[in-house]
Amino acid sequence: MEKKHSAPHAETPDYDYDYYHINATVTTDVFPVDVGHQAFTVNHKPFSNKYPYYLLHFVAKGKGGIEINGKKHAFAKNDVFVLPPNTDITYYPDPVDPWENYWINFNGAVAKNILSQLGIDDTVYYVSKGLPAAKKYFAAAMQAQNNLASRVFTVQSCLFGVFALIAETNRKIPPKTANNEKLLFSQILEYVTVHLCDKDLSANDTAALFFISPAYFSRLFKKHMNVSFKSYVNYERVKKATELMETSNLYIKNIGFAVGFSDPLYFGKVFKKYRLYSPNEYKKRLSDNKPL
Fold first, then answer.
1. Which end of the chain has fewer CB atoms at under 10 Å, N or C?
2. Per-residue pLDDT for 206 more than 80?
């Protein structure tokens, strides 16, 4: 069994505690970080920590609570709740009936957007007061730890299984407001930045990922960036290509591939549009120390 010796839980090794990392990811969009289970005892004191990823918990038995941003939230058997990343959190097992918890921690470029679609944001931490059907997903995720070849796929499916249950029961869809639109676009831009050099990055696929129509996606991008999605992506790729020309000895064709262009001729056309020189001309002027 893999153990997390650096975790705050590890100060009490006599407790029923098990944990393992997910060291591979199916996607960078939403991916599990680790999976764990712990049964607390009446001797376990409250502890605090801050984690750089989202924490998805299921209470299998007993009671407990958390304190976050100065507010306390109580949970009991079958409750599911999500905690935000980079936030100070204190966990409180009930002194009489301490809880037993499972967790699947996760992160990713569109994690925040998926949670917002489920009615979860930085002001709503609990998801469901009583969701017993979720236990099978957390238990399956724990059982997957010894299957090295398949566990990342199993845990990924368990994570989305819990999301599906939340979607069926929570039904708290945030109203469309200007603030939500701004948040949505910031998440879209973050996603595009992460995937900028992926040759398959497209407006339609990105719109689908964020549950909006291609037409709305196009209007949203133009409104916030003053350029079309295609123009933005091409210019940002040219900027990265320019950096590679200045800092590497890669062939021009390979530079185009590295920044997301699958067609060398199209790369050359786009590069010349924004840099006024073809990639070969630009590279030569760099080597000759000529002004650009």
1. N
2. yes
Amino acid identity at 151 = R
Q: Is the dihedral of CA 264, 266, 268, 274 positive or negative?
A: negative
> What is the predicted pLDDT for the residue at 10?
41
pLDDT for 3 beyond 70: no
pLDDT at residue 172 above 70?
Answer: no
Beta carbons of 30 and 97 less than 8 angstroms apart:
no
d(CA 111, CA 243): 30
Whole-number Å distance between alpha carbons of 27 and 125? 25
User: H helices within the chain, ranges in order?
Assistant: 111-117, 135-143, 151-169, 178-194, 203-209, 214-225, 229-247, 252-258, 264-275, 279-287
- CA-angle at 278, arms to 273 and 281, nearest 5°: 145
In whole angstroms, what is the distance from residue 54 CA to residue 85 CA?
Answer: 5
pTM value is 0.67
Q: What amino acid occupies position 194?
A: V
Q: What is the dihedral of CA 24, 81, 187, 206, to 10 degrees?
A: 60
pLDDT band of 243, cuts 50, 70, 90: very high
Structure tokens, 222: 């133009």
Residue with tokens 């009615």: 119
Q: Six-digit token pair at 97?
A: 């009936």
Q: For residue 5, what pLDDT is reported?
A: 36
Give, as one character, the DSSP assignment of residue 69.
Answer: T
Cα 136–chain centre separation:
23
Task: Report how far residue 30's alpha carbon sits from residue 33's, in angstroms, rounded to the nearest whole number.
Answer: 10
